[in-house]
Amino acid sequence: MMTDRPQISFITICYNGFNDTCELIESLEKNIHSVSYEIIVVDNASRADEAIAISKCYPNVITLRSKANLGFSGGNNLGIRIAKGKYIFLINNDTYIETDGFHSLVERLESRPEIGAVSPKIRFAFPPQNIQFTGFTPLTPITLRNSPIGFGHIDDGRFDTPHPSPYLHGAAMIIKREVIEKVGLMPEIYFLYYEEMDWCTQMTNAGYELWYEPRCTIFHKESQSTGQLSKLRTYYMTRNRLLYARRNRTGSHRLLSILYQSTIAAGKNSLQFALKGHFDLFFAVWKGIIGGVFLTPPTITK
């Protein structure tokens, strides 16, 4: 039930995604009965004013519109600033739920004071609805690589044990308000990709544990092969992996990681793109390197 003093503040960003956002809102309103909540939709400078359209369709939903696209972190931070809930739940607008498992997330958060944030099980929305996320492995210290646990597997019960995870998934994560007050808002320097990983790192550095809780499931419309040849994704993944190394590695690991990303990894990736004739992606890699090394503002926003 929606209330003025909610347990959970759901925050979702809408960027030219009116229909997906409506489906998410309807799934939340239809299925959630175990916790009190509010829904906040941030229109991140969509072409049309989707904040107004959503408020007309769903009068109980709180909407606000940004005049500029502030990226994933900036948009979520707008919502966090006005949220009233005890817990902040960041959820992608291209997700939906079929059952109410949110009380289990609250139970996990409240089970120990050290637990600062939790992600539910995330499954792909499209058949066969295999698993996207049931936790992450740790990042390697220099190459900054890790893997989502359970990715692509059938949801057959093998991943139904809750456990700590070094990082949570930005598509669905619930955070104690006190954690945000201690570590700060999501870092906005990234714009897109790696911001939730950096945020999770700040939480663990502050002494909090992050957990995966399988009793709640979110369905995500992202394809298992989405965006692999996107200029935007290539640029930001390259740029922001360097930024993450600069902000979260120290000493020799920091130096070696920056050198590895800007030489071996960039050289290999750009060469592969060039051999396949993807010269836009070739240049996106090196623009990303320049952005990550010299901290230049984002140059690819679409």
From TrEMBL:
Keyword Glycosyltransferase listed: yes
Domain annotation Glycosyltransferase 2-like: ranges: 9-183
Protein's name according to its UniProt entry: Glycosyl transferase
Record's keyword terms, sorted: Glycosyltransferase, Transferase
Claim: Glycosyltransferase is one of the keywords in the record: yes
Any one GO molecular-function label of the UniProt entry: glycosyltransferase activity
Family label: Belongs to the glycosyltransferase 2 family.
InterPro entries, sorted: Glyco_trans_2-like, Nucleotide-diphossugar_trans
PANTHER family cross-referenced by the UniProt entry: GALACTOFURANOSYLTRANSFERASE GLFT2, RHAMNOSYLTRANSFERASE WBBL
Superkingdom of origin: Bacteria
